[in-house]
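Holo prediction — calcium ion.
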Amino acid sequence: MADHANLALAVLAIFFTISANPYKLPHRKFEYKHSFKGPHLVSKDGTVPFWEHTGHAIASDESIRVTPSLRSKKGAVWNKIKNTNNFWEVELKFRVTGRGRIGADGLAFWYTDERGKDGPVFGNIDQWKGLAVFFDSFDNDAQHNNPYIMAMNNDGTKKYDHNSDGSHQQLGGCLRDFRNKPFPVKAKIEYYQNVLQIYFHAGMSASDEDYELCMRADNVELPKDGFFGVSAATGGLADDHDVISVLTHSLTVPPDTEQPSGSKVTEDEKKKLEKEFDDYWEKLQKAKEEYRKEHPDKKKESDYDEDDKWFEDQKERELKNIYQGQNVMHMTLKDLNRKLDMIIGQQERTLSQLGSVSGGGGGGGGGGGGVAVDTIKRHEVDEVLRNIRDTHSQISGIKNTVEAVQSKVVSGGGGAGMDMSLLSHELRDSLNNVKADVAKILNKPPGGAIPQECPTTNCIGTTFFLVIIAAQTLLFIGYLVYKGNKEAAAKKFY
Ligand code: MAN
Ligand code: CA
Ligand code: CA
């Protein structure tokens, strides 16, 4: 039974080997003796462990200022320990800052057979042996192609052409601005299986992900053992050149990709093994069946034997799928929750800013720190939202009422229709009263015996009476027009 399990495993392993991507990522190992990084970059004696800084370079706890932003300065920091790894990756984190729109001259990363010498090439010697990567800020050949990142491999014979920015000597490069960025810029220089690649992070975010490929060159031969170093120089113009960290990893080929080509499984062998596995499986099932027949009492125990551990039945698979599905839902919900929190946070920030702007008045902040900002609280936000909801429901209620009223008005029955007819009745009644009073007055005998005392209410002339009637009619028409307009406006709003 164990043999069977082993065989199954072997077949699975072969399947994985065949289906796996033939390219495997290198094995990375951090090399602390070829690295430095803050905080506490310097020891008590002012030196950087495993490194030596020279020229105008100044080391502080957080970074090494390779040159200050003063004219004609040179500085360098060199690893004291020779690198013996065939392949490696160095991540260089730095800042180039200056007040001018143009700065100079630039920073250089080195992997060379020698170290620590002063010279004209960004603070290092010319005709070096090994790799240089220049972060060249200043456009000496006026081709409008700086700041530029370029790699140059030198066998010790080439003189760097400073006046043309080495444009004809480069292995490869890219035009990238690395000066005055909000975050430190980073360059990843990777040398693996004689392929040189430079990735660049433009310092626009603090994320580790934002690297992009700057250059790649195949068949690059670098010194077997060499020193890592960083140097910088200023000239007629100047920048601060600060190195924040150098992090080195050795790169080795993972053991399982080092298989000799003879051990690769051919298609025929694969089929043969599969057949062997099927035959064996059949035999095993038969043997199991026979055993069960011979030992019916042990049937239950053997139902779930060791071999079954390797396989999952339909139910198990479904359960697993459900579980995974739920997991995905859970993660999505979590993500949504996080995003919601972010939105609420932003809203609160905006509201608090608005609050402080309107509350602070035009006084210009009263001279800096220490002023407590009156921020809006969560419960206040909830209160505002509740109010908005209430208002909304009230408006809906009003809308419904208006609609109902409208429909009743249109159909002519009840509601506003009733009001209108009531009003017109009232008006008619009062008109009738007026008419009756007027008739009474008019029916009184003319001449002499006209009683001087008027009835208490209706002692008016005909003209005055007509004016009143006209005014009332006008009022009535005006009311009807106003009502009609209001309803039309309400209709438009909804
Ligand atoms: C001067 C010279 C150059 C240098 C520029 C920029 O023109 O020192 O070598 O590249 O300034 O600093
Ligand atoms: Ca230059
Ligand atoms: Ca140039």
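READOUT: The helical segments are 2-19, 267-294, 299-303, 314-360, 378-411, 415-443, 462-493.
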